[in-house]
Every structure is written in structure tokens, then in C-alpha cells.
Amino acid sequence: MIIDAEDAREVAEMRARELEPAARAWTTMAACHGDMSVDHAAKVLSRDAAISTGRNRLFSSMADAGWIYRAGDRNQWHAYQTQIENGRLAHKLSGPFLNHRTGELEVPAPTIRITTKGLSVLHRILGGTDDLDYLLSSDEEAAA
């Protein structure tokens, strides 16, 4: 009976150690507010040795995962509403601009932004193996 309790305690402690990096990463991400550009997210993700991506490949990965699609006259990327509602992506709206070719004011497509929740899911989808907390903290150090 004492041996069973000791074995159970050791198993529980081992499992807690396994979950510690994920819990630390989640705490860091939960503390982050806002979102980041697809370009910036690609740079953070590519710090993981198991992920090789850039801006365009990350757009393709999100399209393959059913997060975004192309539409409009300029064939620009748009986020599916479900991904905005579940907190993975956000849209940043921009003001109209003068199209010098046509001389008309045009409203651009919204800019796709990746939330910290979306970054976490993309890290998993793309096969990330490094601690996401470390990737985010090393990104903050590089920015300083």
C-alpha cells in the first residue's frame, strides 16, 4: 500500500514536470495582450528548430488549415469569421488610400493579425518542439 502511494506520487511528479513548459508558455501567452503581424509571427515560429517558415509560407499554412482565404479585386487574404470569433486571428482595419493608377480612393482589405492563442495553435500545427515561452521571450530580448 505504501509502495503504491509512492509510485503514484512519483508518476504525478513526473507528469507535472512534463507539463511545466506548456504551463509556462501558456502563462506567458495569457499575459500578452494584442496580436502580431503574420511576418512577425513567422519570425517567432521560425526560432523553433523544427519549424522552417516565413511570411508567405505561414500564409499558405493558414490557408491549408482553413483559417484564411483569398478574395477581392486584388486577391488579398481574409480571415474566416470563425477564426476571428475563436480568438486565433484578428483584423486590423486601415483607412482609404489614393490609387495613383486609377485616381480613386480605395478601401484596402483588412490586415490579418495573429493572436497569442493563434500563435500557440500554429506552433502545434507546424510541429514545433521548442518551448513557446522561450521563443517568445527570446523574441522580446531581440527587440530590446
Strand content: 15-25%
| Rg over C-alpha atoms, rounded to the nearest angstrom | 20 Å
**What is the rounded distance between the termini?**
55 Å
Total DSSP E strands? 7
Number of domains: 1
Shape: elongated
In spatial order, strands of the major sheet run: 1-7-4
**Helix percentage range:** 40-55%
Order of helices and strands: HEHHEEHEEEEHH
If you had to describe this structure to a student in words, what would you say it looks like?
- It is a single chain.
- The chain has one domain.
- The model has no long low-confidence stretch (mean pLDDT 84).
- Helix 1 packs parallel to helix 6 and helix 2 crosses helix 3.
- The chain contains six helices and seven strands.
- Helix content is 52%, strand content 18%.
Give a quick rundown of the structure.
With 144 residues, the chain is α+β, with helices and mostly antiparallel strands.
List the helices and strands and how they pair.
Layout: H1 2-31, E1 35-37, H2 38-45, H3 55-64, E2 68-71, E3 76-79, H4 81-85, E4 89-92, E5 97-99, E6 104-106, E7 111-115, H5 116-125, H6 132-143
Antiparallel strand pairs: 1-7, 2-3, 4-7, 5-6
Keywords:
two-stranded antiparallel ribbon; 7 strands; DNA binding; Antirepressor protein C-terminal domain-containing protein; 144 residues; alpha+beta; 3-stranded antiparallel beta sheet; Ant_C
